[in-house]
Write a structure and sequence with these properties.
heterodimer, A: about 110 residues, mainly beta, seven-stranded mixed beta sheet, B: about 110 residues, six-stranded mixed beta sheet, four-stranded antiparallel beta sheet, about 55% strand
Chain lengths: ~110, ~110
């Protein structure tokens, strides 16, 4: 049972580099989201999608892009990495935004 | 806009002590409420959820939560904690009409054997 798969698990970037965090789910969920987790700040919503072709911004979208070309995949792109983007990133999916969310294992990103 | 407050940031208990973690939300309409747990080094998992009906909700591992609409609260309780309950606990809310789930800042629970 794969559930929500995130890759990579760890990544170190230099300031100014770009990269894509991958997220895939095999539960045919419509709703997918990206959060970042920082000490003392809980989980903050970056972007979310209510279905293929539809995305919207969360609380902290600046510096990140997303797309949703298929139901299964929801990649998060860092356009030009900054040290402030050092964080743990979680992808989540659910059948609907008001049902249980299933989380991936997280990506620990360090920007130096 | 919906928001969630968790006032206890770090709680330390001895095994067998009772637990109550506070969660308050700000939204006057219908809400869906969740408690998630994150064990050290792991991802978040659902403990319990409230959508409607009985305001006392029972979840996994002996946890329960009570929805008190008049107080905008959804506190998490467990009568007797175990060392394995050491984790971070997050309250979350989805307000009807909002396409977002908002998480609180989390409460770190440390249970001492």
């Amino acid at each position: 049972n794969a559930g929500v798969t995130q890759t990579p698990k760890f990544q170190v970037l230099k300031t100014g580099q770009s990269m894509t965090l991958q997220c895939a789910q095999d539960m045919n969920h419509e709703y997918m989201s990206w959060y970042r987790q920082d000490p003392g700040m809980g989980l903050r919503l970056i972007h979310y999608s209510v279905g293929a072709g539809i995305t919207d911004q969360g609380e902290v979208p600046n510096g990140y892009n997303v797309s949703r070309s298929t139901t299964e995949d929801f990649p998060l792109r860092l356009l030009s990495a900054a040290p402030s983007q050092t964080s743990v990133y979680f992808c989540a999916s659910s059948g609907h935004m008001n049902t249980e969310a299933f989380f991936g294992q997280g990506t620990r990103l360090t920007v130096v | 806009a919906q928001s969630v407050s968790q006032h206890n940031h770090h709680v330390i208990l001895s095994e067998a002590a009772s637990l109550e973690l506070g969660c308050n939300y700000s939204y006057g309409g219908t809400v869906n409420l969740f408690w998630y747990v994150q064990y050290p080094g792991q991802h978040l998992q659902l403990l319990l959820k409230y959508f409607s009906g009985d305001p006392l909700v029972k979840g996994i591992k002996g946890f329960e939560a009570e929805f008190i609409k008049s107080k905008f609260s959804f506190n998490l309780r467990k009568p007797s904690v175990q060392w394995s309950d050491t984790a971070e606990y997050f309250c979350a809310v989805n307000a009807m009409g909002y396409q977002k789930v908002t998480f609180g800042t989390g409460t770190k629970l440390q249970v001492i054997p």
